[in-house]
Write a structure and sequence with these properties.
The protein has 118 residues and is mainly α. It is built from three helices and no strands. The longest helix has 34 residues, at 80-113. The protein is elongated. The chain crosses the membrane at residues 12-34. Keywords: Membrane, Transmembrane, Transmembrane helix.
């Protein structure tokens, strides 16, 4: 019986390296596929994932209701007098900050130049 067709000849280093790379890639591919299947199953079935999504939806809904309530309170209970008092307080605060900044500027000019502004 002639079995010469079974021995194709010596194996080259390139063939050995190509086989190793192929087997490594095949192993990595199978590992990736198994990981994807397990993760997808766990995420789809996990009751914690479902509960978390429901909680996020409920929080978003409550946030919208809170914002609507704040707007309604502002429309109903904030009068023009309150707004005028708030504006006056803001103006007083800005004036106070300007005065403090002017004093600081004058002090710095005196420290640097030895004489007052102007």
């Amino acid at each position: 019986m002639d079995t010469s067709f079974l021995s194709p000849g010596p194996i080259t280093w390139a063939q050995v390296i190509a086989l190793a790379v192929f087997l490594f890639g095949l192993g990595k591919g199978v590992d990736w596929l198994i990981g994807k299947l397990r993760t997808g199953t766990r995420e789809a079935v996990s009751p914690l994932t479902i509960d978390m999504a429901a909680a996020k939806i409920e929080i978003a809904n409550l946030n919208e209701k809170l914002n609507a309530f704040k707007i309604e309170v502002a429309r109903t209970y904030v009068t023009g007098d309150v707004i005028h008092r708030l504006e006056r307080r803001i103006d007083d605060m800005v004036t106070s900050v300007r005065d403090e900044m002017k004093e600081t500027r004058d002090t710095m000019l005196r420290a640097f130049t030895g004489r007052g502004p102007g």
